[in-house]
Design brief:
30% helix, 30% strand, single chain, 5 helices, elongated, alpha/beta, nine-stranded mixed beta sheet, disordered C terminus
Length: 220
């Protein structure tokens, strides 16, 4: 499986190299590969992509959705050019900019539960309830800081990396999902803000100069 994965990466890089060598010197062309999680900041990035393509119509984009660790691995191997990642992230290996969008953490709960009627959810509200947490360790550490001493008594029913699947579980077992807020609707579920509020910033990153195959400028 390791050899297969490496072979696939080599083929992807070979195709990218061929496309770049065929590029017309008078016009910018090629493909930019971007990895991102389920994030509101993707809307901000999409605006940049739209403006960029209007100026450079021969440039296409490839979007890869995945967890932060998978995205970082793909950046390291060179199969994607940019990664949209939720802080905290080790930025030592990358050039990066911070997005304007701030991602807000909420409790995503079934509409027929007591928490759905509350204006906000506190750490104390979660102690006696089954909770679903994101599987990424650094993100769980941020949530642990928010929970404080209540983390010791938290009933973690499961961890997840895809919110849609977590929602399916929450509906059947009345679990509370600690999740980023999205501009989307999950039937039978509602987002309730956390108190104190917890917001994180997004980074859009690329490999440091010298490892890039070519530089990209987002000025439209």
């Amino acid at each position: 499986m390791l050899l297969k994965r490496r072979a696939q990466e080599m083929l992807t890089l070979a195709e990218k190299a061929k496309a770049e060598l065929k590029q017309d010197e008078e016009s910018l062309a090629g493909k930019i590969s971007i990895g991102a999680g389920e994030l509101l900041s993707m809307e901000e990035l999409s605006e940049w992509i739209n403006l960029f393509q209007k100026k450079h119509p021969l440039v296409s984009f490839e979007l890869y959705s995945g967890m932060a660790d998978n995205i970082k691995n793909r950046m390291e191997s060179g199969t994607i050019d940019l990664g949209l990642l939720l802080e905290p992230v080790d930025t030592a290996k990358y050039e990066f900019i911070r997005m304007k969008t701030r991602e807000e953490w909420c409790a995503l709960v079934p509409v027929d539960t007591a928490l759905a009627q509350k204006e906000f959810v506190t750490p104390e509200d979660l102690v006696s309830l089954p909770v679903l947490l994101p599987s990424r360790i650094t993100v769980r550490n941020e949530l642990s800081s928010w929970l404080g001493d209540y983390m010791q008594n938290l009933n973690v029913a499961a961890t997840f990396n895809l919110t849609y699947n977590a929602v399916a579980m929450a509906k059947k077992s009345s679990c509370v999902i600690l999740s980023l807020k999205f501009h989307c609707y999950y039937d039978g579920m509602i987002f309730v803000p956390l108190k104190p509020s917890l917001m994180l910033i997004l980074l859009m990153k690329s490999a440091k100069q010298g490892r890039n195959r070519q530089g990209f400028c987002w000025n439209a």
